Amino acid sequence: MSDMIGADLVDLDLSADTKEAAARALAVRMVARGRVTDLEGFLADVAAREAQMPTGLDGGIGIPHCRSVHVTEPTLAFGRSAAGIDFGAPDGPADLVFLIAAPAGADDAHLTILSSLARKLMNADFTAALRAADTARAAAALIRGDEPPAQREARTAAASAPEDTAVVPAAASAGTTAGSTAPTAAASAAGTGSTSGTPGAPAEPGARDEADVPGAPGAPAAEAAGTVSVPGPDESRPFRIVAVTSCPTGIAHTYMAAESLENAGREAGVELVVETQGSAGFARLDPAVIAAADGVILAHDVPVRDKDRFAGKPTVDVGVKAGINRPAELIAEIREKAARGEVSAPAHAPAGTPVERAGDATEGYGTKLRTWLMSGVSYMVPFVAAGGLLIALGFAIGGWQVDKAPSVMDHFVWTQTDSWGALLFQIGGVAFKFLVPVLAGYIAYGMADRPGLVPGFVGGAIALDAGAGFLGGLAAGLIAGGVVLAIQRVRIPAVLRGIMPVVVIPLVSSAVTGFLMLVVIGKPIASAQKGLTDWLSGLTGTNAVLLGALLGLMMCFDLGGPVNKVAYAFATAGIAVTDPSDSAMQIMAAVMAAGMVPPLAMALATTVRGRLFTPAERENGKAAWVLGASFISEGAIPFAAADPLRVIPSAMAGGALTGALSMAFGATLRAPHGGVFVVPLIGSPLLYLVAIAAGVCVTTALVVVLKGMRGQAPGSGTTGPAAQEAGAPKDTGQPVAA
Question: Which residue has the higher pLDDT, 97 or 377?
Answer without folding.
Answer: 97
